[in-house]
Structure formats: structure tokens, C-alpha cells
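Entry 14. Ran structure prediction on the chain below.
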Amino acid sequence: MKRRLRVRWIVGLVAVLVLAITCWIAKVAYSWSSGGPRHKFVLAEPPLFLTDELAVAKARESLALDGLDPNVWHLYPSERTTAPNGRADQFLARNASNPNQGTVRFMREGKGTDRFVGVELAGNRVTCHGSWGK
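Output, C-alpha cells:
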């Protein structure tokens, strides 16, 4: 009886481990299929809000971390949104409901390929996530 219980416990534990590993692999695969992993940057001082310049700088760093050459990817002007201080954004398409979140678009010359980098500021952390255009 004890032996049977121990075997069931071991089989159950192995099943849970296999399920956890499968879920982790699926999460990583989904992350890469949508463009790449999330990159987190810690700033020395938290800015008042996400600036166009900060978003562009961290988006460029994310391109490099995703294995793309930032020198062949050119910024695509957005000029649709305004920062909280009233200054017009050049490249950041700012989220209307959260001014500390937005997207920077890059284009590759001659290839017709778009790369979008979502950028979010939370305190002194900037998180970026790249995705491919359709």
C-alpha cells in the first residue's frame, strides 16, 4: 500500500513537472514568435514621463539586443502624439490612455520591412518588446 502511494506521488510529480516545462517552452516560443523577448532597462533617476528621446534610445538598444543592426533600421516619424509637457513627439506613437507607453517604428531601407518596439516607463524601469509589422 505504501509503495503504491509513493509510486502515484512520483508519477504525479513527474506529470506536474512535465506540464510546467511544457508551459514554459510554449511561453518562450510565443514570445519569440511575436518578435522577441522583453528587455528591461533600469534608469539611475526616474524621469517625470516617457520622453520621445528616451523611447527612441531604448528602442534602438532593444533592436541590438534582438540581434538586429540598429544602423540599417531607420526611424519612421510618427508626429501624431504629444508629450505631457506639450512637446510634439517625433517618433513615439504615445498611448492615449497611458502617456508612459507607446510604440517606436523602424523601417529597413529597400526591404519594406517594419519593426515596432513597444516602450513602457514604470518608475525608473523601461521595458521594450519588439514585434514585426505585417
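The CA atoms of residues 35 and 131 lie 4 Å apart. Will compare against last week's run tomorrow.
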